[in-house]
Write a structure and sequence with these properties.
Elements: E1 7-14, E2 23-29, E3 35-39, E4 44-45, E5 56-59, H1 62-66, E6 71-75, H2 81-84, H3 87-94, E7 98-100, H4 102-114, E8 123-125, E9 131-134, E10 137-143, E11 152-158, E12 162-166, H5 184-193, E13 195-201, H6 214-226, E14 232-236, H7 241-253, E15 257-261, H8 263-274, E16 298-302, H9 312-317, E17 331-335, H10 343-355, E18 359-361, H11 376-386, E19 390-394, H12 398-410, E20 415-416, E21 423-428, E22 433-437, E23 442-446, E24 449-451, H13 453-456, H14 458-467, E25 469-476, E26 487-491, H15 503-516, H16 526-544, E27 550-557
Parallel strand pairs: 3-6, 6-7, 7-8, 12-13, 13-19, 14-16, 14-17, 15-16, 17-18, 19-20, 25-27
Antiparallel strand pairs: 1-2, 1-21, 2-3, 4-5, 5-23, 9-10, 10-11, 11-12, 21-22, 23-24, 25-26
């Protein structure tokens, strides 16, 4: 029987209703005195059309900031950016213990050093299979398979409310390439123990069958490398150590040297080497070695699979890399998927390569990539192992969550709670249900500044991108008459209208007319003059252009 008034609740602040920015809270105790556990602290990448100039989007943690004296720790399931990428920026607001495996801790430390972070968490390294005692939670790291080393599900136990399982990102892969395979026997044992609720990855819930193994991808890569007549370049997610290792083994089998390009790729390889995941591989070469090797002896492993404009592959595609170039007849393999929103950037890179006569290979031509997330048959198999009483679909957009709900109900899980960020679900006691709500918000990494959308003025930036800006300077003499024609500067606005007249000259006349129509005694009020000029600018541009630009009007006195 649960303690009087005590509840176990689940509250996602990110990652539910979207892919990315994962951050979940588990709370235990009565509503007025809960202890909290944070799982993951990730980012998502900003879309330029909605957040121009913004690099990353982070979850707003103001709710848990207010409760930080009751936050017992932060547990990171694995080292993908959407699960740990916000930690260095948000941890200073919380300053509580952080727990992660060796590979995740190593990448976090390397990232902090590279970015010059002065205040960083002291991470406690946890081995897979180990259990943490974070009173009132006991948290077991259960090995899973994913597209990165040491991914974990979390078996979270509390004295009064039993066991819940948080899957993190996972798939069923008995040959993951590096690290331990998914702990099937342990997952079955947890199911026998009794799982109150399962918070489960929904990314591939619409896709039938099973995700291929990394072993299958290695075979597919080898087929394309061994038939290439000249240089081969392979681009992949830098965090996919199993893929990196597979590429290196393919290179050795086909008598090629591996040249590594890209800071992120080198950083991951350094950490993976420290963890023993690169043991037994030949020495990596640098980009300076490419020009000294026969063309048919080169395999370049490089960043840029998502079309990042500063990445090595984009510069090669634009023929602007200072040290490395590919030639007609070379082959580039995209061992990756295109993240939604990056399609245009990736297409530009592929077209740039094609214009140089370089062959582009994607997963449309063969098995050169596999997802790190479970498809429908894998989800059903996990249900059979864990036998959860309740399922909460997470890590997915609304269409993924809806598909996951239907799949679960069709396979014997009657109680599915579909929620979005900010919905607090009581998991125990009683039937799982939404019992409270936190208004979800986001933070923007805007250059070096961490700000809310309002503080970064992204709405104004969108308006600038859509309709430009007009700046006008009005000079009044001591009688409040125009001393000279208004000065008008246009940015992001067409120069001329359909009749060939310049907008600048038109606006000079419109502004002058608007000001002269104001009674002279009222021109002493600068705000009245400014508003009249703004209305004239926006009205004229709307009539002649069909858009209303942003307007800045300055009123000065004649010397």
């Amino acid at each position: 029987m649960s303690a009087r008034g005590s509840e176990l609740v689940f509250l996602p602040l990110g990652g539910v209703g979207e892919i990315g920015m994962n951050l979940a809270l588990y709370g235990v105790g009565p509503p007025h005195a809960r202890k909290w556990l944070m799982v993951d602290c990730g980012v998502t990448f900003a879309e330029a059309r909605w957040f121009p100039g913004v690099d990353l989007i982070l979850p707003d943690i103001s709710f848990i900031e207010e409760e930080r004296q009751d936050l017992v720790g932060i547990v990171i399931t694995h080292a993908h950016e959407d699960h740990y990428g916000a930690l260095l920026d948000l941890w200073p607001k919380l300053q509580v213990p952080v727990y992660a495996t060796q590979f995740t801790a190593g990448l976090l430390k390397a990232k902090a050093t590279e970015n010059g972070k002065l205040v960083t968490p002291d991470v406690t390294v946890v081995k897979q299979g180990e259990t943490l005692d974070l009173d009132p939670f006991k948290v077991e790291f259960v090995p899973m398979s994913h597209s990165i080393p040491e991914p974990n599900a979390l078996a979270i136990r509390t004295a009064d409310h039993g066991l819940v399982v948080h899957t993190g990102d996972w798939k069923i892969d008995l040959d993951p390439g590096v690290g331990a395979p998914i702990g099937i026997d342990r997952l079955r044992e947890l199911g026998e123990e009794g799982v109150v609720a399962l918070m489960c990855d929904s990314t591939n819930s619409q896709r039938p069958g099973r995700s291929p193994s990394e072993l299958d991808v290695a075979a597919g890569l080898k087929a394309f490398v061994e038939t290439a007549p000249h240089r081969v370049a392979v681009t992949a997610f830098s965090s996919n150590v199993a893929r990196i290792r597979a590429v290196c083994e393919v290179a050795a089998a086909t008598d090629r040297h591996v040249v590594v390009m890209g800071r992120a790729m080198r950083r991951v390889i350094e950490v993976a080497t420290e963890c023993g995941f690169m043991d037994g591989l030949p020495r990596f070469l640098s980009e300076d070695d490419v020009g000294h090797l026969p063309r048919d002896k080169v395999l370049v492993l490089l960043t840029g699979s998502q079309g990042e404009e500063r990445a090595a592959l984009a510069r090669i595609a634009g023929d602007s890399h200072p040290r490395v170039a590919l030639s007609e007849g070379d082959r580039v393999i995209f061992s990756s998927r295109t993240i939604p929103g990056n399609e245009k950037a990736v297409g530009e890179v592929m077209n740039g390569l094609a214009l140089q006569g370089i062959e582009v290979v994607t997963d449309a031509q063969g098995l050169v990539h596999t997802s790190g997330h479970p498809r429908r048959d894998e989800l059903v198999e996990l249900y059979s192992w864990l036998k959860p009483k309740v399922l909460i679909p997470v890590h997915g957009e609304p269409m993924h969550l809806a598909a996951h709900e239907r799949l679960a109900k069709a396979n014997g899980i009657d109680h599915v709670v579909r929620i979005s960020n900010g919905k607090m679900v009581r998991l125990d006691p009683g039937p799982a249900a939404v019992v409270d709500e936190v208004e979800p918000d986001i933070l923007l990494m805007d250059g070096k500044l961490l700000r809310t959308p309002d503080q970064s003025n992204v709405r104004e930036r969108r308006a600038l991108a859509f309709a430009g800006v007009v700046t006008a300077v009005v000079t009044l003499d001591d009688r409040y008459e125009l001393d000279d024609d208004p000065m008008v500067v246009l940015m992001g606005v067409p120069v001329r209208d359909d009749e060939g007249e310049t907008f600048r000259e038109q606006l000079v006349d419109e502004i002058a007319g608007a000001i002269e129509s104001i009674p002279r005694h009222r021109r002493r009020d600068r705000d009245t003059v400014i508003q009249a000029a703004r209305r004239a600018i926006r009205s004229h541009m709307s009539q002649r252009w069909g858009k209303k630009p942003l307007c800045h009007v300055f009123v000065v006195n004649a010397p």
